[in-house]
Every structure is written in C-alpha cells, then in structure tokens.
Amino acid sequence: MSSDGQYALSGSWDKTLRLWDLNTGRTTRQFVSHTKDVLSVAFSADNRQIVSGSRDKKIKLWNTLAQCKHTIVNECHTDWVSTVRFSPSNTNPVIVSAGWDRIVKVWNLGTCQLKTNHIGHGGCINSVTVSPDGSLCASGGKDGSAMLWDLNEGKHLYTLGRNDVINALAFSSNRYWLCAAVVPVVKIWDLEDKTVVDELKLDIATTTQGKKQPSPPQCTSLAWSYITCSPSSSYCL
Q: Where are the transmembrane segments (predicted)?
C-alpha cells in the first residue's frame, strides 16, 4: 500500500503487477514485463518507484506509469525471487531482496548494482522487512530462523527463533520490536533483549467426538498499522 493510503499494489500468477485506486476499487495501471509469476511487490517511501520480484529470477524497478526502468540481471538470484523491499533511508537508499536460493541481497537503488550478499539461511527465504529508519533488515523462511542484518555495515547481527517456518515479518513502527508469522502463531520479539514479548494465537473450538480436527490456521502476511492500535498502544497488527 502507498504511504498515503490511496493506492495498493498486487502481483499475480498472470505475470503482471497492478496498481489499484482504493477509493474506486479499480485498476489504474497494469505492469507487464515479467515472464513468470510475480511473487512480491513494494512501493518506495516516496511512492514514486515500485519494485517487483518474480519466479523468472529477476528484479524489476518501475515508475508509477507502469514503465519498467531497470531489470536487475547481473549477480541476481539463481532461483525464485520471493520477496523485495525498499529501504526508507535517504542516506542509504537500497533495495533488499531474498529468494529460494537462501540469500538476502542488498542493491544500490541509484545504480541497481549489488552491494552485499547476506548468507546464513538454511532454507528458502519467504520474507524480508526493513526497519523504519532503514538501518536494519530481518529475513525469515523455511529454516524457522529470523536473521537480523545491519544494512549500513553489511553484516549479520544475530538470529532469533529456529523453530517453525516463518511466513512473514514486520518491524514495529514505534518500538524496537519484530513481529513474525510463525506457524501456527504470530510472535513478537523485543530486539533489545531478544525475548518474546507475546504470542498471538487464534482460539479454535474443540472438535466434537468423531469429527476430524481441522488443520491449524496459518498467518501468511503481516502489516504494522499506524491507525489501529491495541488498547494499551503497545502494538498494532
């Protein structure tokens, strides 16, 4: 979603991106260039640029007129690009990407050249997220670990979790917290002391005798809201 809440982006198995006007519910632009399913899309902080990642192993940079301005090929991922994000930092403008090759890559936004390869995951990466100040990124995936990386220094900081598969990650907008969609709960870590603040679980009614127990629900996407907060204003989801 754009930072002003007026537009949303989507990526699809039809190989396209779409820009949606949330006031009318209509598509305003269709972005065509990828040759396989689009797995991830994101707006830049100023809403003027869009990045996409695809099963075609390419990362594309667009303007909002649906014009592809650059396709990253050199030193790009060797497998599906599952997640892409912009950093909001003006002093260190970068794109962060990750994929099924188990690597987190950091790209210079101005040149689209590779800055850093972050290696450490033992499985496919499902999600990356960048902190509100642009200094950190977190990645998580099939190996169940959430890895924290310093984007300014280009180094690994520490690892959290090592349990169930992580489907999505999001930094808090006003606290030093990281939220993770970990099967089958939503887990919140305090990054200062590296402890779990809370685990959010969906209550499931007990099944009656003779009926098959349903599979536990899985959270596949997260967003930290600036609008809807908990009663204590401690966290928002």
A: none
AA letter at 22: L
- For residue 176, tell me if it sits in a domain: yes
3-state secondary structure labels for all residues of 100-143: CCCEEEEEECCCCCEEEEEECCCCCEEEEEECCCCCEEEEEECC
Cβ atoms within 10 Å of 141's Cβ, excluding its own = 27
Q: What is the pLDDT of residue 236?
A: 45
At residue 210, does pLDDT exceed 90? no
pLDDT (tens digit, 9 = 90+) per residue, 144-170? Answer: 999 999 999 999 999 998 788 999 999
Structural domain contains residue 226: no
8 A C-beta contact, residue 129 and residue 104? no
Overall number of domains in the chain: 1
CATH, residue 66:
2.130.10.10
Q: What is the pTM of this model?
A: 0.88
Q: Between vectors from CA 75 to CA 72 and to CA 80, what angle results, nearest 5°? A: 70
